[in-house]
Write a structure and sequence with these properties.
407 residues, mainly alpha, Serine Threonine Protein Phosphatase 5, Tetratricopeptide repeat, DNA polymerase, domain 1, two-stranded antiparallel sheet, 1% strand
């Protein structure tokens, strides 16, 4: 009896464990399978494996499932700017306005480690699904600031076209223009200025965008921001013009990436003066801004700018933007030996200006000879002098190259 009782108790105990196993193992298996699916989905998202993503979503994984740090599938896809995956997730109901710790999907797309073309397409898609470009992260940065910091000029234009506040400032007082200046993104700066960004804003430690560029040794950007000091700002602050500009830059259905109008230094300068209509004339003659800025009235007439009003605007701007009218040879010997940083920069700018000043007369002479193809009796003399000029230019080039290497 005792043996039978022991056997009965033993069977009963084993049966109890079996029952427990039946109930516990499937739950554990489900958890393991779910974890495995989540990990597989995460890998598929970063690989851009659309068929596998669809299969996993069809198996029951939530479109808003949470990965490490609370990221959703859409956040992961946006962080690598995978347009096809982002579109798939949005079409299946993912929230384009999702944010984690105030960091949005749009911000993730603007900082993606991807080509600007892919970032642009992804950002445009998110904006079309009502992602808010003016939300800020914990540091009060907007998507526009992130795009400007990364150097994505076309994305910057797109965000402004969709209502992003161009002069918003983060917790340290940095605007999008300042972030671009800090990181040396010239193309972004040109577009922000064209769209009306205020270059006179200051950070909390009272630095302007130009000063940030100078501190970080982006001399060309420092010059550009100084160049546009007054003329552009006075026009682009007009809200009607800015609205029209943004509309003209907004992508149209079926557009190809890269169809946004590129704005160079010349266009920024001319827009600031209201002289956009002479851009074609200057482009035909391949005249760069640096050449235009050293012209006199006679030079303007020679290149076809004969309207007195246009001449007055240009000459006034050129006068305002003169770097330093002191002739290089007039610099005192002590200054030549002990130039401060600002004086040295002005010296180089003046040198460049005087070299540029010589280009227009030579171009004019070349055109003259092309139109009047005849030989002069003293042609050989001209050839010899031209050789001497070329020799002098080469010597100057050698010295400037040495100077560049030294600094």
């Amino acid at each position: 009896v005792a043996g039978g009782d022991d056997g009965s108790d033993s069977d009963s105990d084993e049966g109890g464990w079996d029952v427990g196993g039946v109930w516990s193992e499937p739950q554990q298996l489900d958890q393991m399978l779910q974890a495995g699916k989540n990990e597989a989905l995460k890998k598929a998202l970063f690989r851009g494996d659309v068929p596998l993503i669809e299969e996993l979503l069809n198996s029951g994984i939530s479109i808003e499932t949470s990965f490490q740090f609370g990221w959703t599938p859409l956040m992961c896809a946006a962080s690598v700017a995978n347009f096809a995956v982002v579109r798939l997730l949005l079409d299946r109901g993912a929230n384009a306005c999702f944010e984690i710790d105030k960091y949005t999907v749009l911000m993730a797309a603007c900082t993606a480690q991807a080509s600007e073309e892919n970032i642009l397409k992804t950002v445009e898609l998110l904006l079309s699904r009502n992602a808010d470009p003016n939300l800020t992260c914990r540091k009060q940065m907007t998507a526009l600031m992130y795009a400007a910091r990364k150097g994505c000029a076309q994305v910057v234009v797109l965000l402004v076209a969709h209502g992003s506040h161009i002069d918003a400032q983060d917790e340290n007082g940095y605007s999008a223009l300042m972030w671009a200046a800090q990181h040396g993104h010239r193309s972004v700066i040109v577009k922000l200025l064209e769209l009306g960004a205020d270059k006179n804003l200051q950070t909390k430690d009272e630095k302007t965008a130009a000063e940030l560029a100078k501190i970080n040794k982006y001399s060309e950007i420092f010059s550009l921001l100084s160049l546009t000091a007054n003329h552009l700002q006075s026009r682009s602050d007009k809200p009607i013009e800015r609205e029209a500009m943004c509309k003209s830059l907004t992508a149209v259905p079926g557009h190809r990436v890269g169809c946004y109008s590129p704005f160079d230094d010349m266009e920024v300068f001319l827009h600031g003066l209201g002289l956009e209509h002479i851009r074609g004339l200057l482009k035909e003659q391949d005249i760069a801004l640096r050449q235009l800025l050293v012209m006199q009235k006679d030079d303007l007439i020679q290149i076809g700018i004969t309207n007195p009003g246009d001449q007055q605007k240009l000459l006034g701007a050129i006068k305002d933007l003169q770097v330093d009218e002191k002739r290089i040879e007039d610099l005192p010997e002590t200054v030549k030996l002990e130039l401060s940083e600002d004086e040295f920069c002005k010296f180089l700018q003046k040198l460049n200006k005087e070299c540029s000043r010589l280009i227009i007369p030579v171009q004019t002479m070349n055109k003259h000879f092309l139109k009047n193809s005849y030989k002069r009796a003293s042609g050989e003399t001209y050839v010899e002098v031209c050789k001497d000029v070329v020799c002098s230019i080469k010597k100057l080039e050698e010295e400037v190259v040495k100077l560049k290497d030294l600094v």
